[in-house]
Amino acid sequence: MATRGAAAVCSIARKGKFSSLPSVPRYAAVRFQNSPSRFLPQGFTSSPIRAIHDQTAINPVATKKRDEEQVPPNWKIKMLYDGDCPLCMREVNMLRERNEKYGTIKFVDIGSDDYSPEDNQGLDYTTAMGRIHAILSDGTVVTDVEAFRRLYEQVGLGWVYSITKYKPIGKVADSVYSFWAKYRLQITGRAPLEQILEARKKKVSLVGYGLMLSLQGAVCNDSSACKM
Questions:
Q1: What is the rounded distance in angstroms from the CA atom of residue 80 to the CA atom of residue 120?
Q2: How far from each other are the two terminal CA atoms of the chain, in whole angstroms?
Q3: Does residue 37 or residue 115 have the better pLDDT?
Q4: Is the model's pLDDT at 22 over the cut of 70?
């Protein structure tokens, strides 16, 4: 039956009636879906292909959880970044990968529950969300394009922002970045900063309420004061 089917296809092809044939991608997809191993060499499975597909589908935001797994002991600059910003995370991940060789940058996610303004020159979440901030090891805070220039210098890419050292060009670059910083939430499809701050307040309140209930439960378990 398969032989007759193949002969029919060849007959149609000779007559030039290609329009009645199903598209090659659709035909191949159906056959591979039903029995992918039939089309692979002996001893070869489809799992490597699946693994490659899974790797290419990784969301850059998902990698943000690698924060400060190993803080470089001799870091020279600290990068404060918004771990919920997809475009920001692309740059952060690139710098983090480069930093594996240099070990000069400490990465700090300002959206983390562990973020502490006291440990970062008093920069609270709202301030840090307004623009890029970097903190040198001596405590000096740098912002905007200068922050990027300092960070890139630490991983051997100083040439990228070197031209911004000249004041006229630096001012233009800062203006462009300021526009991006002002509208980046809208550009990346996120809620306005006011809504994000409100959501964070509610989250903190819920965590605090849960802690209170836990403490109250512990007290009631050890005392008869809570019994009616």
A1: 9
A2: 83
A3: 115
A4: no
Q: Which two tokens stand for residue 159?
A: 């040439």
C-alpha 109/C-alpha 113 separation (Å) is 9
DSSP class of residue 112 equals S
SS3 sequence of 147-192: HHHHHHHHCCCHHHCHHHHCHHHHHHHHHHHHHHHHHHHHHCCCCC
Helices (H) and strands (E) in the chain, counts: 8, 4
Residues near 147 by Cβ (< 8 Å), separated by ≥ 6? Answer: 79, 132, 133, 134
- pLDDT score, position 189: 92
Mean pLDDT of 157-163: 96
Taking the C-alpha atoms of residue 182 and residue 204, their distance in angstroms, rounded to an integer, is: 26
Q: Of the ranges 44-48, 134-138, 174-178, which one carries the lowest mean pLDDT score?
A: 44-48
User: Which helix (DSSP H) or strand (DSSP E) does residue 135 occupy?
Assistant: strand 133-136
Q: How many other C-beta atoms lie within 10 A of the C-beta of residue 209?
A: 10
| pLDDT for 32 | 38
pLDDT at 128 over 70: yes
